[in-house]
Specification:
It comes from Nocardioides luteus. Pfam families: ABC_tran (PF00005). It is built from 19 helices and 20 strands. By secondary structure, the chain is of the alpha/beta class. It folds into 3 domains: 234 residues, Rossmann fold, CATH 3.40.50.300; 165 residues, 3-Layer(aba) Sandwich (Rossmann fold); 63 residues, no CATH class. The protein is globular, with a radius of gyration of 25 Å. The chain starts with 7 loop residues before the first strand and ends with a helix.
């Protein structure tokens, strides 16, 4: 054990909520001047551990030390005052206030006349962003800023409070590739300046590129800590799930049948141009491309959420009217959106209500739906998708990310669709649940469902798709069979100039 006290140390910390033990034995040691990954499946206890560090929860047992001194924070204000800051995936800033006002909210300095010293505030903010190496205008309102810029403001706020421990909780989930790179550069800058950074993420490529050390948690308990250079991704996956995960992409053999979804010449100026694709029975078609390629916009237009100017969409040979999602659902089209919390779920409604929403008209008797009918209908799908919850009355907003995704899938599968469009099927969920979702999609395809899958994760596209259609800057640049799709062929097509449509030989 090193002689110098760690910047942050937790030893066998426990926390229960009534009979539920959220954290059985959480341990974490983070050195100053390091970036430490904390990984675990949803439900592993990471969030509870972070909330104890941040002063939101008080521990039931165990030790919590900062720079070797035992602490027991009663609230988040005490934790911040002691130099602990947490940067969440979705920052909470005041949109009508300026960047500077947000950073100094509640602790504005005053001049000798007792008035707020705006010049001093602005000067310090300029120095903070210079220290981080990012150009953000101190006087502009935060409304309209990207999530990435908002996170940087939260980091600047933490530094203004002289934070020694900075926890980044899934900070890259909603960021583009360039924004992720910038955030990682900032994290390295903070490490080099002596800060202890805890980085929580499901994205192993980022963890292995950024972090010095990695701690694994499982089922509310500490499993292991290693220098990142001494472990492989496969070893970490085995520790996360407690078993071998030899096949994260369980692609089952399926009989590909007749065309179901056919899109011809779909165009919306400035977003996508002349998109044509076909999805057949039993087939998973991957829609790949870099951020901004237009994949989600195409999916939303097909389903009728967004308009398009020209082109046509047919389902099982029948025209799907543009801009009419209700009719698309009636015809057999289902759409799981990228942002399940904003657009896929009613968070303050129970699981049963969420699952039966699209079929409520069919379940109603004289305009009313009985709780019994609603629960019976929802129970079948919740059981098939193995939604983990105490009861169907559990509010959707309290579920883990993986279980929320299962509820959204159950909701749409209850409509008995012919074609499922699913945007980012495993974003923000842990590796074990990813495997479950992949197995479900593969089983559905085997049963004859046509699936159009949009994913930013190239291994997911290559592992699950029978064919891959690649977009670049709103234009279709390649269509590749499963055998032809490789990291090289897909990435070359994804970065191709939109005036070029690559054939397989060119892409390879």
């Amino acid at each position: 054990m090193p002689d110098t006290p760690a910047a942050l140390e937790l030893r066998d910390v426990a926390k229960s909520f009534g009979p539920v033990r959220a954290l059985r034995s959480g341990s974490l040691r983070v050195e100053a001047g390091s970036i430490h990954a904390l990984v675990g499946e949803n439900g592993a206890g990471k969030s509870t551990l972070v909330k104890i560090v941040a002063g939101l929860y008080r521990r039931d047992a165990g030790d919590y030390l900062l720079a070797g001194t035992s602490v027991d924070f009663r609230n988040t204000a005490e934790a911040k005052q002691a130099g602990v800051a947490v940067i969440y995936q979705e920052p909470t800033l005041f949109p009508d206030l300026s960047v500077t006002e947000n950073i100094f909210m509640g602790r504005q300095p005053t001049n000798r006349w007792g008035r707020i010293d705006r010049a001093a505030m602005r000067t310090e903010v300029v120095e903070l962003f210079a220290r981080l190496g990012v150009p953000i205008e101190p006087d502009r309102p935060t409304e309209g800023l990207s999530i990435a810029d908002q996170q940087l403001i939260e980091i600047a706020k933490a530094l203004s409070l002289d934070a020694k421990v900075l926890i980044m909780d899934e900070p890259t989930a909603a960021l583009s590739g360039n924004e992720v790179e910038r955030l990682m550069t900032v994290a390295r800058t903070l490490r080099d300046q002596g800060c202890a950074v805890v980085f929580i993420s499901h994205r192993f490529d980022e963890v292995f590129a950024l972090c010095d050390t990695i701690t694994v948690m499982r089922d509310g308990a500490y499993i292991s800590t290693d220098p990142i250079a001494d472990v492989t991704e496969d070893e970490i996956v085995r520790r996360l799930v407690g078993r071998e995960v030899s096949d994260l992409y369980p692609k089952l053999e399926a009989t590909v049948g007749k065309p179901l979804l056919e899109v011809r010449g779909l165009t919306r100026t400035g977003l996508f141009q002349d998109i044509s694709l076909t999805v057949r029975e039993g087939e998973i078609v991957g829609l790949a491309g870099l951020v901004g390629a237009g994949r989600s916009e195409v999916a939303q237009a097909i389903f009728g959420v967004d308009p398009y100017e020209s082109g046509e969409v047919t389902l099982d040979g029948q025209p799907v009217p543009p801009g009419d999602p209700r009719r698309a659902i009636e015809m057999g089209l289902a759409f799981v959106p990228e942002d399940r919390r904003q657009h896929g779920l009613v968070l303050d409604a129970p699981i049963s209500r969420n699952i039966t929403l699209p079929t409520s008209g069919r379940l109603a008797r004289t305009g009313l739906i009985s709780t019994g009918i609603e629960n019976r209908s929802a129970a079948d799908w919740a059981a098939r998708l193995e939604v983990k919850a105490a009861t169907l009355d559990t509010l959707a907003g309290t579920l883990s990310g993986g279980n929320q995704q299962k509820v959204v899938l159950a909701k749409w599968l209850s409509t008995q669709p012919k074609v499922l469009i699913i945007d980012e099927p495993t974003r923000g969920i842990d590796v074990g649940t990813k495997s479950e979702v992949h197995r479900l999609l593969s089983t559905l395809a085997q049963e004859g469902l046509g699936i159009l899958m949009i994913s930013s994760e190239l291994p997911e596209v290559l592992g699950m798709a029978d064919r891959v259609i690649v977009l670049s800057e709103g234009h279709q640049t390649a269509e590749l069979s499963r055998a032809e799709a490789t990291p090289e062929t897909v990435m070359r097509a994804a970065t191709a100039h939109h005036s070029t449509t690559l054939n397989v030989s060119e892409a390879s």
